[in-house]
Amino acid sequence: MAEEHKPDATPPAGTQPAEKPAADVKSLPPTLPSSSTTAETKPAVPAAPVKPVAPAKPAGPVPVPWDNEFIHGLKTVYESGIRETSTYLGQNYMVVDASILTEILQDYRDDEGFDYLVDLTAVHYPKREKAEFEIVYILYSFVKNERVRVKTQIADGESVPSATAIWPTANWLEREVFDMFGIRFEGHPDLKRILLPDGWKGHPLRKEYGILQQDKEWVQINLGIESGQ
Amino acid sequence: MLDQLTGYLSSNLTPGAAGNSLWALIYILLIFAGVSFFVMLMNWVERKALAHFQIRLGPMRVGPHGLLQPIADAVKLMTKEDVIPAGADKTIFWMAPVWVVLTGFTTLIVVPFGPTHAVTDMNIGILYMLGISSLGVLGIIMAGWASNSHYPLMGSLRSSAQMVSYEVAMGLAIVSAIMMTSFTGYGMYGAGTAAGTGTLSMIQIVEAQKAQHVWFVFKFFPLGFIAFGIFAIAMIAETNRAPFDLPEAESELVAGFHTEYSGLRWSLFMLAEYAGMFAVSSIAATLWLGGWMRPFPNALAGPTWDLAFSLVPGALLLLVAVAAFYNAARMPKHLAMRIQTLGLWGLGAVIALVGLIMLIPAVRVRIADISWFVMKVGFFMYLYIWYRATFPRYRFDQLMRVGWKVLLPVALGVLIVTGIAGLTPELLAWAKGAR
Amino acid sequence: MVDNDRDFYGQEWKEDRGEKSSTYLDASELVLNMGPQHPSTHGVLRVILKLDGEKVLGTECVIGYLHRGVEKIGENRTYTMFAPYVDRMDYVAAVSNGLGYCTAVEKLINVEAPPRAQYIRVIMTELQRIASHQVWLGTHALDIGAMTPLFYTFRDREEILKIFEKYCGARLTTHAFRIGGCQYETYEGFEKEVKKVCAFMEPKFGEYEELLTTNRIWVERTKGVGKLNGDECKALGVTGPVLRASGVKWDLRKAQPYSGYDKFEFDIPVGENGDTYDRYMVRVKELHQSLRIIRQAVDNIPEGPILAKVPKVLKPPVGEIYHSIEAPKGELGYFIVSDGSLQPYRMRIRPPSFVNLQALDKMVRGLLVADVVAVIGTLDIVLGEVDR
Fold it and tell me: Is C307 helix (H, G, I), strand (E, B) or coil?
C-alpha cells in the first residue's frame, strides 16, 4: 500500500512550467485504472504529483491485480466477460461485461454471501467510445465484512438488467440513476424519475448538462415564473 | 316582581324547586358568566401549566404573565374572517358549533354548587346530565359532515365512536355510585339499605354522602375508588382530551372534526370543550368527592373545625394574592414594563381584597360550599392538563379496546360487587334466617 | 428472475390493472395524501397512502422536494470547497457528514489524520450523535402524542450546540473538520466542558426514559409496529439503528473502524423484534454508549498536530474510492472518483435516509394510518439527505 504523500513544498513551484505538458495529457479522456482501453495508455497517464521530470517521489497508488478462489472460479466460467479485477487503495473491484452482469451479481449474492447492496451508481465518461457510462455496484458481505465493487460499462442508449430481483434495495437506487443519467434498467418494476419532477427533460449528472442549466419549459409551465434563476 | 326577588332570599330551596323563574334566570346568567370566565381562566392556566411542564414560560407578554392572553385570543378569534369551505353544507355548518355549545351548557343547570345552589334540582339530575352530553355527539358529527372534506369526516366519526363507547363505561360507574346512595350504613364499609333513599338527584347524592359520613370514593374501599377511577378515565375520553385526543391530533389528522372551522366558530367548539370538561368534572366531584362538602364534615365537626375549614378558601385567595405580589416585585424594572407591573400589583390587590372579603364571617358561611366545589373541579382540571403534558396519544383501535374491553368489564364487575357489598347485612340476615 | 405477476415485494398485481403503479385504485380503497406539508413528515416528504378504511394497503413516497443537486455541485467545486456543502445534507448531524467526507478524501489521497485530530473528531462526532438522537427522540415522541420530551431533548441539546459553537463557530452546519484533520485547536477548557456536559446529560437520558420506556401508552403504540426482521433489512439495504434493532449486531465503527474508533471500548446495542419500540431502545442505549466513548476520548486526548500535511492545491491521484462511516442515521458513504484534477470527477453520496426510506412501504403494510406517522418517525429520516 502506498505511504503518505510527501508535501508538495518546493517542487511544484519549480516545476510550474512542467505542469503544462501534464495538463495537456489530462485533456485526454480521464482514463482511470479500470478503463477498458489497452494497457499501453496506463504508464502514459501518470497521476498528477508523479511527473517524470520531478525529483524522486514515491509513486502514487496504482491498481494491483486481485485474485481469489471465487474470482478464479468466475473467470473460468465467464472468461472474457470479466475484463478486469484489481485492488486500488485496498478496495477490490472488478469490471464485467453488461451481458453477464446479472449472473455475476447473482453469484455474488448466492455463493459468496454478499447480501447487502450498499450503493448503485453511475459515472459518465463522455469521451470514452462505446463505454460512456460506468455503472458501479458496491456490495458488502456481513459474514465476511468485505466490500467489493462490480462495475460495468455501457454505451449511451443501452440498457442494463435491473438488480431489483436480487436486492430490493436497487429499486430507488436505479430510479435515481435513471433520473440523473438516463440509463434504463430492464425489468425494473416502476422506472420513473425520483428526485426531479416527473416532466423534467434532461438528465443532470451527465457531463453535457451544465451546472446552471434548468428545464426552463417545465419551470415556466409548472411554476409560472420565467426561470428558476 | 319585587317580592319574587326578595321572597326567594329567605327560602332554602333551589329556584327550580321554589318555582321562582326570576331567580332561576339570575342563576342561569350567573352560571353562564361564571363558566365563561372559568373557560377563559382555564385557557390561561392550561397554556401556562403546559408550558411549565415543558420547561418554558408560556404567554408572558400580553398582560403581566400573559393574564390578558385569553382576552387577546378571544378578540382575535372574533375578528377573524369567517371562512366556509366551498362545498360545505351551510346550514349544518353553522348549526354544529351552536349545537355543541348548547348541549354543553344545558347540562350545567343541575350542577350543585351548594345545597341549594343549583338552578334546579331535578330528581333525575344525573340522568339528565348524561343524556344531554350524549346529544353533544350529534354536533360533532354535524361538524365533520358539513365540512365536506376527508380529514374532518374521519375525525368526527372517530370522535363520535369514542364518545359513545366511553359513555357506556361512564354510565356503569355512575350507576354504582348511585347505588351507594341507597345504602344506609355508616362510614367506609357501612352497608344496608332502607327503602326509598336511593336517588338520581345531584343534590341528594351529596346529601347521601353526608348522611353516610363518607365520600363515595372511599366507600367500600377499593370499590368506590375503582368506580371513581373508571369515571375519571372515561370522562377524559368523553371530552376528547389527551391521551384520548386522536380525533384532534395535529400530527395525524390536522385538527380532526374542527379542521375547517376558524375564528368564532372554532372558539365555540373550544368553549364547548371546556364547558364539557367542567360538567364531567363536576359530576365526578359530586358523585365521588362529596360535592360542596368540606373535608370531614362529620368526623371533624364542631365550631373550631368549622372555623378552620371555612377560612381555607379565603386563605387560598390570599396566597394567590401573595404570589401575585411576589411576581410583581420580580418583574423587570424597565420602562416598557411599567404598566404590566402596575397591572399585576393591581390584580394582586383585587385578589387580596376578595380574599379578605371571603374571610368575613357572613360571607365565609355563604361562600364555603361554592369554593369547595370549585376547588374540587379545579383539581380535575389540573389533572386534565397534567395528562395532556405527560402521555402520548392512544391509537384509535387501542382507544376503543380500552373502552370496551377494559373499562366496561371492570365497571360491570365493580357494579355487581358493590351491590353485593351493599346488601351484606340483608344477605347475612337471610343466610342466618335460612338456617 | 423478475416475476411479472407480482410487484417486488411479492404482492400480487390486481388482475385488471391497467398501469403497474402501486397506487392503482379500487372501489373500496381510499387514497390519502400525506402531503409535502404535514406536521409529521419530517421535512418535505409526500406519502401517498392507499387505504382500506384505516388499514394501509400500500404507500408511495414522492421525494425530491429538497433536491439541490449536491452531487452535480460536487463536480464543480474543489475538494476543500465542497466540504461545507456536505453539512447541508443531513443537517441534523452535520459533523458526521463532515467526518465521512474528510475521511473519504483522506483515504483517496492516502493521508491519515494525526491522532490528536482523530480524538477530537471522535468527540465531536459522538456529541453530534447524541444531539441527532435527541432531535429524533423529541420529534418522534411528539408524533406519537407525547409533547413534553421534545422540549426536554431540545433543551439538553443546547448544551452540545454551545460546545460546537465555541469550537467551530456554528451550531448546525458546522464544517468542523478539514481534509487531513481539524482546522481548529480545541479551545481552552474544552475537555472540562465536555466532561461537564457528559455529567449533565446522563441523568437527562434517564428523564426521557422515565417518561416513555415503561409508559403503557408508549409501549402499546410502538410495540409490534413496523416490524422488519434482519434479512429483510439486509435485502433492503437498511442500516443504522433500524438494522441493529432487527437483531443484526453490525456497526461500522466496530466492523470497519475509522478515525481511531478501534481504540475505544463501547457496546453495540441490539434489539430483538425489529419493531418501533426496539428502535427506540437501541437509540436510547446508543446515547449512553456515545457518552462512554466521549468520556474515554476526553480523558486520553494525545498531544500533537491536528492537521496532517496535505497539499494546498489538492489533486488526488486518478482513482476512485468508496468510504463509509456510521452516521447516526445509518451507513453514510462517499464514492469519489478522481481524475487527477482539482475537482472530483464524480461525487456520489450514499445517503442512509434515502435507502432506509425505501423500507417504509414494507413496514407499513397492514398497519393503521396513525402508525404510518410512527414508522416514518422511527426510520429517522432527514429529507436533506434523502434528496440531496
Answer: strand
At A191-203, the pLDDT tens digits run 888 998 888 888 8
Q: Which three cell numbers stand for residue C101?
A: 467526507
User: ipTM surpassing 0.95, yes or no?
Assistant: no
Are C49 and C80 found together in one domain?
no
C109 contacts on A by Cβ (under 8 Å): 5
Chain C residue with minimum CA distance to A61? C317
| Mean pLDDT, rounded, for B373-380 | 92
Provide the pLDDT for residue B218.
87
Nearest CA to A47 out of A30, A34, A35 is that of: A30
pLDDT digits (tens, 9 = 90+) for C93-145: 999 999 999 999 998 888 889 999 999 999 999 999 999 999 999 999 988 88
Domain shared by C158 and C296, yes or no:
yes
Identify all chain C residues contacting B392, using CB atoms and an 8 Å cutoff: 141, 144-146, 212, 215, 217-218, 221
Question: What DSSP assignment string belongs to A25-65?
Answer: HHTS----TT-SS-TTHHHHS--TT--TTSSP-PPPP--EE
Q: Do C319 and A63 touch (CB under 8 A)?
A: yes
Query: Strands C46-52 and C55-62: what pairing?
Result: antiparallel
Q: What are the grid coordinates assigned to A215, written together? A: 428545464
- Cell matching residue A210: 451544465
Cell (9 digits) for B170:
361512564
The model carries a pTM of: 0.83
Closest CB to C319 among A8, A49, A89: A89
Which three cell numbers, joined as nine digits, stand for B73? 385570543
DSSP 8-state secondary structure symbol assigned to residue C216 = H
Compare CB distances from C145 to B50, B55, B242 and report the shortest one's residue: B242
Contacts of C21 (CB under 8 A, 6+ apart): A190, C60
Domain with C211 in it: 70-387
The pLDDT, as a whole number, for residue B127 is 92
Q: Residue C105: give its domain's CATH number.
A: 1.10.645.10
Q: Which of B388, B392, B396 is the closest to C141 by Cβ?
A: B392
Structural domain for B122, as ranges: 2-293+360-434
Q: Tell me whether residue B311 is in a domain.
A: no
Say whether the C–A interface has 3 or more Cβ pairs within 8 Å: yes
Number of compact structural domains in chain C: 2
Q: Which three cell numbers stand for residue A116?
A: 447487502
Distance of CA B159 to the CA centre of its chain: 20
Percent of chain A having pLDDT more than 90? 11
Distance, in Å, from the CA atom of C150 to the CA atom of C162, rounded to the nearest integer, reads 18
| C39, C152, C211: residue with CB nearest B251 | C39
CA atoms of B139 and B161, how far apart (whole Å): 13
Contact at CB, B395 and C215, closer than 8 angstroms:
no
Q: What is the pLDDT of residue A55?
A: 54
Residue C2 pLDDT > 70: no
* Partners of residue B398 in chain C, C-beta under 8 Å: 220-221
CB contact under 8 A, B389 and C147: yes
Regarding whether C283 and C138 lie in a shared domain, the answer is yes
Chains with at least 3 CB pairs less than 8 angstroms from chain A: C
Q: Are B230 and B287 in contact (CB under 8 A)?
A: no
Contact residues on chain C for A2, CB-CB shorter than 8 A: 110
Chain centroid to Cα C271, Å, comes to 18
Asked if B253 contacts C145 with a C-beta cutoff of 8 angstroms, the reply is no
Cell of C330: 445509518
Same domain, yes or no: C160 and C233? yes
Distance CA B142, CA B94 (A): 9
